[in-house]
Amino acid sequence: MNSWLRRRPSPSRPPAAPAAQMAWPGLRPSILQLIGCLLGLSTAGAAQAASWTLSVQNASGQPLGDVAMAVEVKGQTGRAGAGSVAQMEQRQRQFQPFVLVVQTGTAVSFPNFDTVRHHVYSFSAAKKFDLKLYTGTPTDPVLFDKPGVATLGCNIHDEMSAHIVIVDTPFFGKSNAQGQLRLELPPGEHVLKVWHPRLGSPLLSSFPLRLVPGQEPAPLQLPLR
After folding, report:
1. Is 202 within 8 Å of 123 (Cβ atoms)?
2. Could you tell me which residues come within 8 angstroms of residue 86 by beta carbon, excluding any fewer than 6 positions away?
3. CA gap 121, 153 in Å, rounded
4. What is the pLDDT of residues 32-45, one digit of tens each?
């Protein structure tokens, strides 16, 4: 057979470019790797976020409302950011709410919506202050700068009382009438701190909290007085 009739071999084709280079031909591999790492970290962080229902009961298994609950994630603590504020109102000669939970470093105002004057005070170790007879809202709020429980009273109306619970974590709240509080938390080993007026202590009680993906934590039972 003549050599000119022989089939010539096909020229070799260059290897296909990686998908990432095909999508962004102008980017260097190191930049593409960085983008991949950032996307991976973002996905991992999103996967760790979860919503958990924390439940609290009395010794008989009945749900408890107005329980201050705070979770120190991995045992870590932290103060509120600058400008954090909250409010404890006075209406119909009562403090509202009865239990207020705030993060350490929060400034609390005490507006009086009644037609009578109030004299708000606290002798608690967590925060001592004295707002003498006033109507409206005092000019300066009270800064709650260390953790604990501040019990409030009115020097004019003895039936008025309330509590401000100060916690060292941004993960906190108060149980509802069903004894539940829902928080966004990562799984793992944490510390749960709780307080209720009928626990009979000015200090928060600490309990281990283990959060397992796909499994709600067991209800916490408190021995109330």
Report:
1. no
2. 100, 102, 106, 107, 108, 109
3. 6
4. 444 444 444 333 34
